[in-house]
Amino acid sequence: MKQGRNTTQDERIAIVKDCLASGKNYGKMALKYQISYQQVQTWTMRFEEFGEAWRLRTGGASARRIRHHAQS
After folding, report:
1. Of 5, 18, 46, 52, which has the fewest beta carbons less than 10 angstroms from its beta carbon?
2. CB burial readout 9-31, b (16+ within 10 A) else e
3. Residue 27 above 70 pLDDT?
4. Which DSSP helix (H) or strand (E) runs through 21?
5. Which of 10-19, 29-38, 55-64 has the lowest average pLDDT?
6. CA distance readout (Å), 5 to 22, 33, 36, 57, 71
7. What are phi and psi of 66, to 5 degrees?
8. What's the number of CA atoms in the CB half-sphere (13 Å) around residue 65?
């Protein structure tokens, strides 16, 4: 499997915002930014669920804590 390129958190946010502006055209964003379709889709879904707090996500446990606090 081909390894993706490294991206910064700021770059990921910019990609997600561009994706949302394009009507969630994951394929177009994947080609434009040279990353996988699945990665664009995952980042977009996380951004929609957590908003800018998604930046703080560092792993599974962190995601569960953020989700728990968001539901409280």
Report:
1. 52
2. eeebbebbeebeeeeeebeebbe
3. yes
4. helix 9-21
5. 55-64
6. 22, 10, 9, 19, 33
7. -60, -45
8. 8
Q: Is this model's pTM higher than 0.85 or not?
A: no
The radius of gyration of the chain from alpha carbons, rounded to an integer in Å, stands at 13
53: number of Cβ within 10 Å: 13
- Pick from 4, 31, 2: which is nearest to 15 by CA? 31
Retrieve residue 10's tokens: 């700021």
Please answer whether residues 22 and 40 qualify as being in contact, where contact means their C-beta atoms are separated by less than 8 angstroms. no
